[in-house]
Amino acid sequence: MSYMKLWVGNRSVKIRSKSAVGWLIAFASLSAIVTGLWPAADVVDPAVRTQRLATRIACPWCDGQSLAESGADVAADLRRVLAQKVDDGWTDAEIFAFFSDRYGESILLDPPLLGWGLVLWAGPVIALIAGGLVIAGKRVRSASDA
Q1: Dist. CA 19–CA 101, nearest whole Å
Q2: pTM
Q3: The pLDDT value given to residue 111
Q4: What phi and psi values does residue 15 have, to the nearest 5 degrees?
Q5: What ranges do the domains of the chain cover?
Q6: Which of 41, 61, 99, 110 is deepest in the core (most CB within 10 A)?
Q7: Which CATH superfamily is domain 46-107 in?
């Protein structure tokens, strides 16, 4: 079995080569996820921007559908209100605040990065890091025992 030497602080740790490849794959995957979640550049075309915003706002009377997906009359009305706000020059934050003030924060399909929304976004990343640290700790202990 082949090992790689990894320096952590002022001590060295032996890691199996297969494990190092696994860590590289995990890092590459996490990098791809972060890149995919990175906010896109602002869209200038009002119709495209309205459509993009409609996919991030839930229909208040439809079960789990966005304004863009729903065929309900109320969703069509809210899409018109949304388009009017975009045409009036409202920012995304102002539009989201407008809808959440009237219908509650549950209307936003992407939870805000505040309070519990931050926990929802950060929770999976923290769990992934904690799991990786636990696995790495067990492997280091088993390698030092051998």
Answers
A1: 49
A2: 0.53
A3: 65
A4: -125, 135
A5: 3-38+115-145, 46-107
A6: 99
A7: Cytochrome C biogenesis protein (1.10.8.640)
